Amino acid sequence: MRIAICPGSFDPVTNGHVDVFERTSKLFDVLIVAVFHNPNKKPLFDMEERVELLKLATQHIPNVRIDCFSGLLNEYARQQNTNIIVRGLRALSDFEYEFQRALLIKKIDPVIETVFIMTSSEYSFLSSSGIKELAKFGGPITGLVPACVEDRIHQQMAKF
Ligand code: ADP
Q1: How far apart are CA 156 and CA 160, in angstroms?
Q2: Tens of pLDDT along 28-58?
């Protein structure tokens, strides 16, 4: 059984993420979307909420599982019986960061393979931080995030 992990902050999930999940899920038997705790980022949604939003946003993908973890990604991958990490690439600016991360994880655990999936051109400009900026100032996020999570983003923004 071929299992892939898409790790990320997903704060919040965007249509760019969902596009990556849909395409990745067709390449593997099981896709685990794993929300990780990034100590460098102060999240809009806590882990449980992000998991909940991801579950709503991926209901149409039959072989997806949503999970969360903190700690080392290679250890998490081993627990899940896989060595495959999938990350999305948008612009050249993502490349340097992703390249470093992939090499670092390979250094500490050589069995891990990080593979990259190119963004679809219609989502290449889309990021969670861009969505947060838009929503903060009441901008339109329709079409940029899954319809089922749009209201939750506006509600959450209103609290901040
Ligand atoms: P992280 O904090 O790890 O960067 P994100 O939630 O921002 O987590 O992103 C998770 C993954 O999804 C990353 O591999 C990122 O490059 C990818 N990604 C984010 N937005 C897009 C997009 N619009 N198209 C393709 N991949 C994307």
Answers
A1: 7
A2: 999 999 999 887 878 999 999 999 999 999 9
Q: Which domain holds residue 90?
A: 3-158
State the pTM of this model: 0.95
Distance 89 CA to ligand 1 centre (A): 7
Q: How many structural domains are present in the chain?
A: 1
* 128 in catalytic set: yes
CATH of the domain at 135: 3.40.50.620
Q: Is the CB of 87 under 6 A from ligand 1?
A: yes
- Which of these, 78, 76, 71, 79, lies nearest to 111 by C-alpha position? 78
Element (H, E) at 54: helix 47-57
For residues 160 and 148, what is the distance between their CA atoms, to the nearest angstrom?
21
pLDDT of 160 > 80? The answer is: no
Q: Which residue type sits at 131?
A: I
pLDDT tens, residue by residue, 85-120 = 999 999 887 899 999 999 999 999 999 999 999 999
10 lines ligand 1 (CB under 6 A): yes
Catalytic: which of 90, 101, 106, 152?
90
